[in-house]
Design brief:
The complex is a heterodimer of chains A (295) and B (52). Chain A is α/β, with parallel strands linked by helices. Chain A folds into 2 domains: 145 residues, no CATH class; 107 residues, no CATH class. Chain A contains 10 helices and 5 strands. In chain A, helix 8 packs across helix 10. The relative contact order of chain A is 0.12. Chain B has 52 residues and is mainly alpha-helical. Chain B contains 2 helices and no strands. Classes of the chains: A alpha/beta (295), B mainly alpha (52). At the A-B interface, helix 6, helix 8 and helix 10 of A face helix 1 of B.
Chain lengths: 295, 52
Amino acid sequence: MNQQTARMREIARELLEKKEVEMVIGWEKGTFFYNSTPVFITKPEDADKLIWDDYCAVNFAKLLMDYRYLDGKVAVFVKGCDARGVNRLIQDLVIKREKIYLIGMPCPGMKDAKIAAKLGQEKEAEVPLEGKCLYCTHPNPVIYDVLIGDEVPVEIREDRFARIKEFEEKSSDEKAQFWASQYDRCIRCYACRNVCPACNCRSCVFDQNQDWLERAVDRSGNQFYGLVRAFHVAGRCIECGECERACPMGIPIMLLKHKISKDINELFGEYEAGLDPEGDLPLGMYKADDPDEFM
Amino acid sequence: MQRMLEFVGIDPERFQARWVSGSESVKFATVIEELTEQIRPLGPNRKLRDGE
């Protein structure tokens, strides 16, 4: 058992014993070595289920939405990306800061569970990082009540906009062909929407009872779904990469999200969502000198 | 929007955003006529459609 795990259990047990929080959300070991799944702890004696390992990629921010009406507080473990997700929900007025207790986990980057599943445990050392961790700009939580361990040095492994620039060079036919072939695989399971901390609307245009877009799984419907969702989270996307990680069909959804972030940076000035729960959103406010080009 | 459409392979000439007030009927008609004439040579759009 590593140091962080011991400290996690200790903090969780104490919070529950003192009844400071009603529930602790953390990771527990799943069925396989590459599964670290969410666990919801309400009794102090269950705190020993908690773990911290190379596969704690799941972002808990969205799960808080289910527990926002509890009487007491909810404690949740947050990595850098998760903390920005929590900021997203606070800024969107979905949850109140005083209803949650945040335990910060500086994150060295998580491993890719899908590849780990293929390679098997013997070759675990060869498992690469999650795609989302390669582009991570904030491994340390930007908001927390208590931090476990020391902050990790920020190491940008890959420039998230470099691949966008590369893609922009392609001809329009190549681009259309690429996206058509990617979204032809989409099964419209909406996992990307369900896992997204920015997709926190009470009612969603893609729901069954809405008539904005047909539900049929076909080339045009799938691509419009992807594009509409990308625009709905524009300027609010915290780039946690959960949509792409959750996608069972391996569609490179973050390409669309990074493209929008890049455009916002170019048109509205440098902006990273979810760093500060106060502040103005570039697309959430009006200025007389807003560039027309974004339309 | 135009940048995004370009990114998914749509010709940017197919999309324009213009400000037209509800009372500017003549301007509205002119804008639409212009746009139609610009798009005509491009032919029907085959992208973002179902496979044929």
